[in-house]
Amino acid sequence: MRRTEKLMKDWLFIKEGERCRVDLPHTWNALDGQDGGNDYYRGSCVYERQVARPELHGKERVYLQFEGVNACARVIWNGECVCTHDNGYSTFRVDITDKLREMNTLTVEADNSKNRRVYPQVADFTFYGGIYRDVELLIVPEVHFDLEHYGGNGLRVTTEVQGTTGRLHIRAYTNRKDLKTEGIEAVYTLRDAQGTAVGSAKGCNTVMEIPDAHLWNGVKDPYLYRLDAQLMRGETVVDEISISYGIRTFFVDPDKGFFLNGASYPLRGVARHQDFKGIGNAVSEAQMDADMELIREVGANTIRLAHYQHSQHFYDLCDRYGMVVWAEIPYISEHMPEGRENTFLQMRELIVQNFNHPCIVTWGLSNEITISRENRADMLDNHRKLQKLVKKMDPSRPTTLACYAMCSPFHPVTRISDLVAWNLYLGWYVPGLFLNDRFMEFYHRKYPKRPLGYSEYGAEGMPNLHSARPRRGDHSEEYQAKYHEYMLECFDRHPFLWATYVWNMFDFAADARDQGGEPGMNHKGLVTFDRRIKKDSFYIYKAWWSTEPFVHLCGKRYRYRAERTTTVTVYSNRNEVSLYCNGKRVATQKGTHVFRFRVELAKENWIEARAGGLSDAAVLYRTRRLRPEYKLKKDKSKNWI
């Protein structure tokens, strides 16, 4: 039967002639890709290790499997190049069975050099080089579910629901054209969450019905079945794979937004980049789990996994916890005529490898592609061909597009995908929070049958910068919170939006940036890059989205205040909050989400917010002058473009 042997330890790593030993996952840009200057190393490095011949039984086949090598990979086995791969975010494999020796030398040349044929090349994030996900030997029977079609697992399942009956359309692909000539049959068993068989079917192209199907219903009830697929020769199992699977339906209404299983289900969530401070993109599954827990805590029900294919482990987490997902390829910022084939490759791999995840509801064609105005005709043609490709590969899901803020609503690229969304930072990069309302109202009036979403919106927020009078551009924690307060109210006024995504859940590395006094970072996250600080803006979303009772006292890091009377803000999902100063009740307010109190400051002040048995507290000090470290020191900041 199938088994794997991990190849994670003791690699020789060679960079510009220097050698050291490393374990995987690994990136060579963990530090220089996060320190600013737009000068992180982009080039070719070599990984090498010895691999013993695995013990084989009969005519088993051995595949080398890579889950992520950024960005281009050249795989050399015993001195022979056995494959190349030009996608830094997807799984790829190569059969090495006939090239095995007792001891083998595996060499991987990983290359994140600048070029004009592999995406991404221009974007607001660091393109970390390295083998940053797992590498393993995958040992399978001679006859097996196909492993050589764009990194997929050989199984494709779609669902429909009629009344209370679920119907699974199952298509299996194997490495044999005709299983019957070898006396082999594909057999399927569907098991419920307790492991009890609730459905069965046979054949490589078949349908299974499940009476009284338990639907995958987002964060409310992310119910998953397990589908066991077996290749059987008589009573003998030849090969077997299993997938978790959710049965659900969805659609988007241009007036009423997103519907899941026939019920209105407004998609309100966050975008996520995969990197981490001091680690880059070489994150562990434990760190992915921690990211998911933070996203769940804030109360989101959807995630835009930007701007590339993420780890299979994270898509599995989204399935398990009911997160609706926007999945996309890194066709971003600039159309490269030489990169057209790469967009098709990356889209094919994204869809084939992730087709069976119930969490995914839309495929993203591109992001901010109109930043560059060159090669417009070629870009439009490429998008039209991508649209046709996706609809042919997966007619069950709509496509979408994330438009650049300056992209005109009348631009032809905005009408190619099934859905559309904008990356808009009105109130941050340009003044006027009210312009968000104007844009939504105008677009919906102009294109009433075109579903509109907000794919990105946000403001930089530094937890060490503070202001009693927050304003656009000051990078203060207070302005970021003020911005998001407005946006939540704005979305509530426009329920026709099919989805909205905070940019970003976490601060992330963008080595070309120099903003907020910390170069190399995009600070729009609700949580800091090291995941240690939940900014105040995190809690305004928790107040709107989460049902977990809490109360949060804002401004705890704004400890020293040069004012006689200060405003204290409290976020909570309780409907009544009381504020105390040095043991005395200042006031009690009834309301929703946001509670503001005016407090006369003494020299030292113990401030406590209480709501329904919950409390949060901080010490504030009154000073003569504003602390200089609370103010952004640079008059000018450098964006990435």
Protein model, in words:
The protein is an alpha+beta fold and 641 residues long. Helix content is 15%, strand content 37%. It has 7 helices and 42 strands. It has an 8-stranded parallel beta sheet with strand order 31-30-29-28-27-26-25-32. The protein has a 6-stranded antiparallel beta sheet with strand order 3-2-4-10-7-8, with no helix packed on it. Strand 7 and strand 8 form a beta hairpin. Helix 1 packs parallel to helix 2. The longest helix has 18 residues, at 376-393. It starts with a strand and ends in a 19-residue tail after the last strand.
Count structural domains.
Answer: 4
Low-confidence stretches: none
Number of helices: 7
- Into which percent range does the helicity of residues fall? 10-25%
Radius of gyration, in angstroms, nearest whole number: 26 Å
What's the CATH topology name of the largest domain? Answer: TIM Barrel
**Second-tier CATH architecture of the largest domain:** Alpha-Beta Barrel
Q: Give the N-to-C terminal Cα separation.
A: 52 Å
Number of strands: 42
Structure classification? alpha+beta
Shape: globular
How many strands, what sense, and barrel or not for the largest sheet?
Answer: 8 strands, parallel
CATH class of the largest domain: Alpha Beta
